[in-house]
Each structure stands twice: as structure tokens, then as C-alpha cells.
Amino acid sequence: MLLAEKSTGHLVEISDIKILFDPNEPEVTGSVHYGEEAQDPEPIAKTALVFPSGEPLPQCWRDPDYRRK
Questions:
Q1: What average pLDDT is seen over the chain?
Q2: Which comes out higher in pLDDT, residue 34 or 3?
Q3: Does residue 69 carry a pLDDT above 80?
Q4: What is the pLDDT of residue 35?
Q5: Judging by DSSP bridges, how do beta strands 27-33 and 42-45 pair with one another?
Q6: Which of 12, 16, 36, 63 is the 20 to 30 A CA-CA neighbour of 46?
Q7: What are the φ and ψ backbone dihedral angles of 20, each rounded to 5 degrees?
Q8: Which residues, 6 or more positions from 36, have their beta carbon under 8 angstroms from its beta carbon?
Q9: Residue 4: what pLDDT?
Q10: What was the pLDDT predicted at 45?
Q11: pLDDT tens, position by position, 16-46
Q12: How many helices (H) and strands (E) does the chain have?
């Protein structure tokens, strides 16, 4: 799955989608795509990611207490 970095707009390929959907995990592992090649996988905070269209990630992916609010 491809997402984008909020600050730069660079595309990020998420390697484990199950962790992305887990609200108890604050970070995902992804490879940033810029330049000629994808970079090495690195941990990236979910708060730093958005969909390529600019929409934020769903709250249920980021906040384990989203139902209580």
C-alpha cells in the first residue's frame, strides 16, 4: 500500500498492512520512494502519514480509544 509523507509528499510503500490497521501500533515500517530507487525500510510514525490524496489516515488506525471519544 502506498501512502504519502505529510511533510514532504514523498510516497511511502508500507511493508506490513496489518500493523497499519492496528491502532495500538504508533509506527509502521515503510520504504520512502524518491529519487531513482526506493530507500531502505525504516519506522515511520503514523501521524506523519496521509493518503496520496492528502486525506488523513482514519482515526481507528491511529487511536486505540477512538470509540470512547
A1: 93
A2: 3
A3: no
A4: 79
A5: antiparallel
A6: 36
A7: -60, -40
A8: none
A9: 97
A10: 97
A11: 999 999 999 999 999 999 878 878 999 999 9
A12: 2, 5
Instruction: Report whether 4 contacts 10 (CB < 8 A).
Output: yes
Q: Phi then psi for 41, rounded to 5 degrees?
A: -60, 140
Contact predicate 40/31, CB 8 Å: yes
Residue 31: per-residue pLDDT = 95
In angstroms, the Cα distances linking 26 to 1, 37, 69 are: 17, 26, 18
Give the count of alpha carbons within 13 A of 47, CB side only.
Answer: 3
Q: How far apart are alpha carbons 46 and 34 in whole angstroms? A: 19
Question: Which cell goes with 21?
Answer: 490497521
Contact between residue 2 and residue 42 where contact means Cβ atoms under 8 Å apart: no
| Helical segments of 9-58, H only | 17-21
